[in-house]
Amino acid sequence: MSSIFTKIIKGEIPAYKIAEDEHFFAFLDINPNARGHTLCVPKKEVDKLLDLDESTYIGLMAFSRKVGKAIEAAIPCDRVGMTVIGLEVPHVHVHLIPLQSMKNATFQYKEHMTPELFEETAKQIRKKL
Ligand code: 5GP
C-alpha cells in the first residue's frame, strides 16, 4: 500500500505544497514544530534514509538545501534545523524546521496553524525559491 506521502505526491490527499522536481517533493508538515516546518520527500518510496541509493540521498540533500534557504528567507528565525526521524511515516523525509530555540527541535512543542496561515506560509516560502 502507498504511504501517506506517496498519496500527497500523487495529489490523492491534499497538502500545502512548497516545491517539486522530477525526483523530490516538499510540503508543509501538518503538525508543525514551528511555522514553516517543511518535509522534503523523495518520490521513490523508501522507508529508511540510509537505504536510499547514493544519488537519491545526495539529491535529497541538495533539494532540501534549496528549500531550506527559501524557508530561512521567508520565515523569521534564528536558523533552519534539519532532522530525519521517520518513526511515524515509513517514507524517507527530511524535516526542515525554523528554529528560535531548542523548543522547536524537540517535537514536544507544536504550533497551532489555521488553514489560512498554512496557505499564507506556503505562499511566502514559495516566493523565495
Ligand atoms: P516522523 O515519521 O519523522 O516521526 O514524523 C512524520 C511527520 O509527518 C510528523 O511531523 C507529522 O506531523 C507529519 N505528517 C504525518 N501525516 C501527515 C500528513 O498527512 N500530511 C502532512 N503534511 N504531514 C503529515
Number of domain modules = 1
**Share of helix, binned:** 25-40%
The helix-and-strand class reads: alpha+beta
The hetero compounds bound to this protein are:
guanosine-5'-monophosphate
* Tally of DSSP β-strands: 5
Give helix and strand order, one letter per element, not per position. Answer: HEEEHEEH
The radius of gyration computed from the alpha-carbon positions, rounded to a whole number of angstroms, is 14 Å
Q: How can the largest sheet be summarized?
A: 5 strands, antiparallel
Per the CATH scheme, the topology name is: HIT family, subunit A
CA(first)-CA(last) distance = 33 Å
Contiguous uncertain segments of 5+ residues: none
Q: What is the 3D shape? A: globular
How does CATH name the architecture? 2-Layer Sandwich
Q: What percentage of amino acids are in beta strands? A: 15-25%
Mean pLDDT: 98
How many helices in DSSP terms? 3
Order of the strands making up the biggest sheet: 1-2-3-5-4
Name of the CATH homologous superfamily: HIT-like
